Amino acid sequence: MTDYRAPIDEMRFVLSEVAGLGRVAALEPYAEATPELVEAVLEQAGRLAAEEIAPLNHPGDRTGSVFENGVVRTPEGFQRAYRHYVEGGWNALPFEPDWGGQGLPWALAIAVSEMWNSANMAFALCPLLTMGAVELLQAHGSAGQKSLYLSRLVSGEWTGTMNLTEPQAGSDVGALKTRAVPAGDGTYRITGQKIFITYGEHDLAENIVHMVLARTPDAPAGTKGISLFIVPKFLPDAEGRPGRRNDLRCASIEHKIGIKASPTCVMAYGDDGGATGFLVGQENRGMEYMFTMMNNARLAVGVQGVAIAERAYQQARDYARQRVQGRALGSRDPAPVAIIGHPDVRRTLLLMKSQTEAARALAYYTVASLDLAKAHPDPGEREHHRTDVVELLTPVVKSWCTDLGVEIASMGVQVHGGMGFIEETGAGQHYRDARINPIYEGTNGIQALDLVGRKIARLEGAPARAFAEEVRGFLRNGSDAGDDLPAIREAVGEGLAAFEAATDWLLESWARNPVEAATGASAYLRALGTLAGGWLLGRGAEAAARRLAEGDGGVGFLKAKIATARFYADAVLPQVGANAATAMRAADSTLALDEAWL
Amino acid sequence: MTDYRAPIDEMRFVLSEVAGLGRVAALEPYAEATPELVEAVLEQAGRLAAEEIAPLNHPGDRTGSVFENGVVRTPEGFQRAYRHYVEGGWNALPFEPDWGGQGLPWALAIAVSEMWNSANMAFALCPLLTMGAVELLQAHGSAGQKSLYLSRLVSGEWTGTMNLTEPQAGSDVGALKTRAVPAGDGTYRITGQKIFITYGEHDLAENIVHMVLARTPDAPAGTKGISLFIVPKFLPDAEGRPGRRNDLRCASIEHKIGIKASPTCVMAYGDDGGATGFLVGQENRGMEYMFTMMNNARLAVGVQGVAIAERAYQQARDYARQRVQGRALGSRDPAPVAIIGHPDVRRTLLLMKSQTEAARALAYYTVASLDLAKAHPDPGEREHHRTDVVELLTPVVKSWCTDLGVEIASMGVQVHGGMGFIEETGAGQHYRDARINPIYEGTNGIQALDLVGRKIARLEGAPARAFAEEVRGFLRNGSDAGDDLPAIREAVGEGLAAFEAATDWLLESWARNPVEAATGASAYLRALGTLAGGWLLGRGAEAAARRLAEGDGGVGFLKAKIATARFYADAVLPQVGANAATAMRAADSTLALDEAWL
User: Ranges for the Acyl-CoA dehydrogenase/oxidase N-terminal domain (chains A, B) (predicted)?
Assistant: First the structure.
């Protein structure tokens, strides 16, 4: 176990030079987000994450959350840390000021969220789910619902959950069976069982606001017959304080591979006749409402991938610095050296570092466009950021960043050698924790289908072409730093050509037969993510070269940004062509084998 | 949790059509290995693995081995299963008949070993370590040592361990400090601490024979001063039965990510003045002796990678067949279908299946050459199989197959969706168990360095050229089956060109600066493994096409072999070029970044 240190220089650099936080802060609603404020926010969040939340990660994994007699106890220290998190106002960062939010850009909030997740992903999940409830109510709640729930959820005083999944309804939400029957007084009686409810029960807050999908008696089948309800653990009393206990309970919690401190609950609604639920918006529009929340949640999960990669990287690098083993290759000196000096360990650390930075760049870049799509005065710009960036790249951030999280955590174990396989080191926890990210909030396979179906084929490739134009803009730029930027541009250019060929194939094959196109979806997504990461690292390198030429400070850091981008171009970008080729070549052979012979 | 079923048809096919077991059985020492006997061995081993050993895998993971008061208790059922394993003569399969072995080919033994490891890797580790002790004593033990220990180890009545690692001496074995002082009576007093000793203490056998590396008082520094000792838990009495307890003990066992049923022990030697050890061979030649065992152990660990991939694949496939979720893409029928019908799940299963079969093909092919290298009457053939196949490919089997084991186990979790993250499913156990394989028996990074340093550069590329010639032979063959074999040949040919370019680069850069070449070692190894797997699947497809043309039975199976090879060619072989490019391009940028900025 080693300490976590928030990579504040890196975050600031990515926000300003890659994500373009300056453009966001230039918009009227975000005028407060000055460089000084950004600095202060990152510093203070980094302190709380490093000093209080991170030290709870490993012990929390050992004990896990515990379920006894219907009560869930989170690990020691979680209550105190959550209190400090709420008291610091951290939960309110990106929300609307009307309800106590600070109204700061999502781009900044996501950097702060990365810190909580690096520090302790199991802890950070609780606010992540609350965020979903806030977004739902901000967008679709009635005035009364907002005044009762929003300020308490924004502050974090109460927490929120998302109740979608049932045993027969996972990826296919439309198959859910939980029932909501009008009680005659405007409320509904909710009965049914929900599974995989993150922080469905816990001891961190005095009330838990469950957002529950259910069907009214005459609802149509499938996703068109789903309604959304607020089902609080304690019904608010006249003063809005937690009053009568609602008819819902946690039936059990899961025994999971990772994020063990985070209780994953089976929730039973209506054992005694029906939990009281309050309809959000109109009946049968629940799925539509849920999607307003889901896209942001997918970005947040993508950032969890970045976060766990960062933590695994820091730990592996620190171990490699202190672990002395073996002499230097090609040296006559028999004295053993720190393993960070061995070429293969260095290569592994650079793969970890460069891909973590590429994933972070893509995530922050996409989230900054979320702010621009929301607040830009020009409708055309809003539309561009929404369609060509946020919608196109959300499934990529979710899948590519979380697949990388798993792969980088696995490399982190490997750098530790035998010690990596021993739980006390902590490297294994990241490997176990990271594995949930490609699964929840829409499996990565579903993200890939969303990308090729809704974001590419449905729009006849327009967002992919807009993306390619952005990349070509980078290729046309003339500035360079030695031979690094030209080499990066060449590798990005190779990748772009492969990506464009794959896009053409995709459009054509989708028109012919969507099943065929879908076989290549995951490889296509991987190609896009890898290319986008290389391009954004390249833009970072360009900015670093410019700042170096201008005699800006932080020479070591700026040179490292260029060197890391160059490594990624050399070592990682060749995968774009391979993934594009796989997507284009393997459709027939994916479908050829008789299912009985799988 | 699902059942394990030994893939006997596949194993027989790979043994006969890819590994060339016929050539091995044609050799005089292996005349017994008739097709009938091979069939019977696979059938019977498959039964024991599936019916008795596999069902212990998941419960064994839950309880783990338990350490209390110096005693290790293995999970319930392990004792009985191990007794049946010994009584069935399974431990003796590949060993010399002089000591009770059955003298069957290693190629057959490795298929059987795959079954034990698929069934229960934590259980199978105990015989795997015993095998190492047998090989050491067969090759280097005195007549007296052989008569005292060998027959009991060959039968499995006693088990063996390998004691190399110490806290400061992991990959760098030469740094070990355990001392061996002559006692004056021909024995030695052993004192020191060893860590990571697999099955160092347990309750499966009446005696444990520790093979311990230690230094005599005047030994030179480093690996040249290491001697090998037999240090039995109980000193054999006059009748060769376990007598006096030796001065050694298990001090603790590790709390690991996976293979929890397998006790990983800290061993303390000589707390009461010194454990009695018996020198094997001569002083200071311990490392040399250890290497006779280590190469086979590396192949065995590679097969563990195949085994866990097979188990994860079977489980994911069976789950995908029974899990019903979502409608078929592009269909108007709203009825939900089994997820095996969804294109991305199919793709994932095919990646699992085709890469598992490719890895198996490479492992069996390499091990068959081990038999040929040992028993072929022609010295030139022996030398060819030893140098161009076994030595070249051993690090590839170890690394590539175990990296695939991790990746395929990870895909297996993903196919399960949310259920994959819940321990009761069992998918997560494979993900956790698989993670040790790239680490132990020489980390995969060390294997890659062994490949490029000793097997390529030192021999000026000769084995790589011989390998390329074999592949070219396949490319020149004319037989085909529709357009599959031509397409496979084209993809293998592309991969071969990239591999040969990378080999040229490697030889040149090693001559210039080994550190530079070493940065590309892992990517080069991955390229070689991926290519070799595609080539051997292609040979299998060729054989399947021939047998189909001859009207041989098993049409469905043979067609599946061709379809699987074709999928691999389309979906996986493009990676060869990417990995070769990475190896060639990234040397400078791997070394460029100042270490302080990692």
Answer: 39-157
